[in-house]
Amino acid sequence: MSTIATAVTGPADPPAAPKSRTPLGPLTARSLRSCLRTPSLLLSPLLTSAFFLIIYEGQLSSVTAATAPGGRYIDVVLPLCLLTTAFTGGATAGQLLVSDIGSGYHARLWLTPVGRWTLITAPVLAGVVVLTAQAAALTGLGLLLGLSPVSGAPALLALIGATVLLGTGFLLLAAAVGLHTGNSSAVGSVTLVFFPLSFFTATFVPRDQLGGWMAHAADINPLTPPLEAMRTLLASPWNEQNLLPGALVALAILVAGAAAAHLALTRRTRTGV
């Protein structure tokens, strides 16, 4: 009977191929290995921020320490250097994507069942790991230069976490630019946009020490709230901290980065280039 049924209905349909798991882990590990093989991605943001931290602390602490909370200028300048690390290190994901696009590896991945968001998520996660290491190393240097947060070790962990949260938004923005253009210079423009902004906030002194047009520029600068929040983590006890404005700006940058990445993926899906 089974032979007759087979002859009538035809051979049974082949079993469905198992769905491939999203290889996020292997792709992230590959992106990390690419970072290790590219010193400019791993060391340049850290060394640049460390250089400025040492110079600012060494040359300006004796002049401006009296205006700093607790008399420690490192509480003022370390958050500034961490902020700089967040958006300079944020270019990592974009540069990794540009490298893969240029080598043709990204085009080959595009033809596989790999989830489209994975192609951005993997370099962004690699960038998060690198940025966390950079922020921790820079904070360690701050401790060597006399950093002593009022709230102790938890404040240091929160400071590193704030840097990573802010940097993740920049990583997504850079990834979107890299995916959209495939051009490393365009990815670098993300840093060029935000780097000048960091000098139009309370760069070298607390916000309440600014006056004139610079005070107004700092008031409208989107980098001022996260910078002030990071300084508050070091200089104030937990019950006196107001971190909400800085957290909202960091989340806004994160959402903007995710939206930009979504648009870049949508365009590439439609055009296939």
Task: Quickly list its features.
273 residues, mainly alpha, 13 helices, transmembrane helix, ABC_2_transport, transmembrane
General description of the model:
The protein has 273 residues and is mostly helical. It has one domain. The chain is 74% helix and 0% strand. Helix 6 packs antiparallel against helix 10. The radius of gyration is 23 Å and the shape is elongated.
What's the SSE blueprint?
Blueprint: H1 2-9, H2 24-36, H3 39-42, H4 44-64, H5 74-89, H6 91-103, H7 105-110, H8 116-144, H9 153-181, H10 184-197, H11 212-220, H12 224-235, H13 244-271
Helix pairs in contact: 2-8, 4-5, 4-8, 5-8, 5-9, 5-12, 6-8, 6-9, 6-10, 8-9, 9-10, 9-12, 9-13, 12-13
**H/I helix tally:** 13
Catalogue the unreliable spans. 1-20
Beta-strand residue percentage: under 5%
Q: Mind telling me the C-alpha Rg?
A: 23 Å
* Terminal Cα span: 54 Å
Estimate nothing, just give the exact number of structural domains: 1
